[in-house]
Amino acid sequence: MEVCGWAPSQVLGTLQYAGGGWERASVRCNPTGKVTVVAGTSPHGQGHSTTFSQIVADDLGVTPDDVEVLAGDTSIATWGLDSYGSRSLSAGGVAIHKAAERVREKARILAAHELEVAEEDLEWTDGKFQVKGAPDRAKTVPELAFSAWAAHNMPEGVDPVLEASAVFDPPNWTYPSGTHICVVEIDPDTGSTRIDRYVAVDDCGTIINPMVVDGQVMGGVAQGIAEALYEEAIYDENGTLLTGNMSTYRVPSAAELPGYTLGKTVTPSSTNPMGVKGIGETGTIAAPPAVMNAVADALRFVGVEFIDKPASAEKIWRVVQQAQGQAPPDRAPEGGGTGAASMTPGVEGGAA
Amino acid sequence: MTQVAEPEATRWVGGGLKRKEDPKLITGQGRYVDDITLPGMLYLAFARSPVAHANIASIDTSAAKGLPGVVAVYTGPELADEWAAAMPCAWPVTSRTYPGEPTADARVPDHWPVAKDRVRYMGEIVAVVVADSREHAVDATEAVDVDYDELPVVDSIEEAVADGAHVIHEQFDSNELYTWNLRNGDADRVFAEAPVVVSERYFHPRLIANAIEPRGIVAQPVPAQGEFTVWSATQIPHFLRVFLTLLLGIPETKIRVIAPEVGGGFGSKLEIYAEELITVALARKLGAPTKWTETRSEGYLATVQGRGVIQDMEVAATEEGRLLGVRVKLQADMGAYASLCGPGIPILGAFHYHGVYDCEAYSFTCTSVFTNRTPTDAYRGAGRPEATYATERIMDALARRVGKDPAEVRAMNFIPPFDQPRMTAGTLEYDSGNYGAALAKAKELVGYDALRREQQAGDGGRDG
User: Fold this and answer.
1) Using alpha carbons only, what angle is made at residue A93 by residues A91 and A98, rounded to the nearest 5 degrees?
2) Which of A235, A279, A307 is best to mutate for the B interface (most B CBs within 10 A)?
3) Local structure of B316: helix, strand or coil
4) Does a structural domain hold residue A1?
5) What is the mean pLDDT of residues B168-180?
6) How many CB pairs under 8 A join A and B?
7) Which residue of B lies nearest to A226 if distances are taken between CA atoms?
8) Looking at the partner chain, which of B53, B153, B269 has a beta carbon nearest the beta carbon of A44?
9) Quick one: B122 and B254 in the same domain?
10) Which residues partner with B216 through β-bridges?
């Protein structure tokens, strides 16, 4: 389980954080019907353009290819609080959805005007406004975008152009959750750990794009496995970083990482109207305990009482040797402790 | 666009579309900060401290200034007038028992982009070289001659809190930034009366984020207008603009910040960095475009690191393994200064060390300290991975203690399914959850019961 969404602003204030937690977006229907989304979040690899385009495509009856997402420029996205803490969808995506709904509501007024019916006589079906009982009388949002731009025949009190902005300040955090189970096999002679199976079942509420969600989970789990088995920045007593490059700070490659079996449950969030929770951090949250519990469970069979991160081959080898009363003591780990040992494989669940 | 999962009718949400942004990224057409070159551009490189704690006795930049292509070399005192304020901490957590009032002032020591008279971690900037090429700038940093009078080094959390520890920031009486508490229920009574108490200590080593793209910044001034366009490999262009105004005194309306393609961050680019401030300040001072790109080993020293936490984690439970209380004491390593959000990171986990499990009493305490190491800040998850790690490892330890399967102990302690906000022991309102469903599905996918049988049979351990 994690706390996501980095909001609400008022609560952040009570925590002594200087900023807020809202997010802002605008949605603009260009004259030819293509849609520009301006997002206050700032992507750095997550796939925001894809995810946000899907939201707007449904809201306005266009395709994701019709939607361009602009972000990461203070002169274009004049307001925004950027991307961190799995907030881009649960704060920013919801703001985009709200703005798109406002655009659609304005389009509804125009549609009723052009079709010469009351707004209540229109229904939003198959991505367009249809006159109830007369489905061949219909207007699409791109058609209405052109007439709103030409502005030859606007209803009384309605301004030209089809554009809207919205701010969303979530009333609560979101709480994605899930269960990760890791199965490891450890070679007691070398201390090396092989991950035989890794199952991740995540619940991030409503899913916009399952491929993007899977990508976030896989990348995060890889980083979490790295944290559990490999990575550690080590300083000596002089404050010198001993792991000063990639030959000593061990970032695992694809060769060290397993395939993943991914599953999902969907429990919509009560925090926002889309029911979304966020998926950016779940992998690095769930994987370290899942892997370490599996390692500890395996080592338990050979009498090792405890092992801390990272469970490198060297550390495992040492605790096994130590348990057999043979090895020189390990370098004293900062804050940590290790136990005693003998050997077999392990399986463990880390419900995260 | 390739559509992998056919969406129903006009519905796109829920469909597996390939990422729209990828064609340009995988064909080399994405434009990152380091791809930007402007006419008349000057290149920056930094001389960094090779020691963790020292007074700067003297700096001689004359040799560096004489090298080919070098335009200027600046020390900390020579740039002191550029800064309207010291580097920011946006989350100055104070000692308190939340949600009560602070019991002390925030401890945010001045942190200048270029050290003025003392360095407090290995990699801190002591001088800036500006040259006509990146190579000339880097070469000249090696000719900057610095005499260091070394000071005692606080090399760990234990050392920071030890009796008689050297105090890194003399204006404070210790290396402690704050001690922050959260209490709900009578944890001391619950632990005293509980039939089962399990305690473990976990250490989270510091981690280096290793975004594929290192940090980088380009600043383009329009001197006649006092305007600046800034490209930075950052997660937070909007915050960077605010802080460029606050720290450099440039009106916000005169600054445009662009985060072009950014190759990962994982929290390490959620920061206002010295290098960003210096690059913009020197574009202003020299009236020319300036650029800096980080090297990987430079990033290891000077990009914020993650984690660096010691946890003393305890749970109280019944003989059956039903959770009664959670009590945790953290010690967190902030490094040499209070970074943008660093002091708040442990607090992000403060409210949920009981995770997805119900309990009646909850006690959290965190003491954060300065050490002579690179500042820490957010790293993917930021405080929450640390919390979940402690929760889930101690649940396994509890299961071992009461002689049950860990999945069974988890299932019996789950908060039952809920779809509206629900108050928890850690005083959060969880939004919704169905933890048993995910556990059941994961057990099925992995073949849990069969694996446990194999393991117990001890068949030599193939496939655990």
Assistant:
1) 95
2) A235
3) strand
4) no
5) 97
6) 410
7) B207
8) B269
9) yes
10) B293
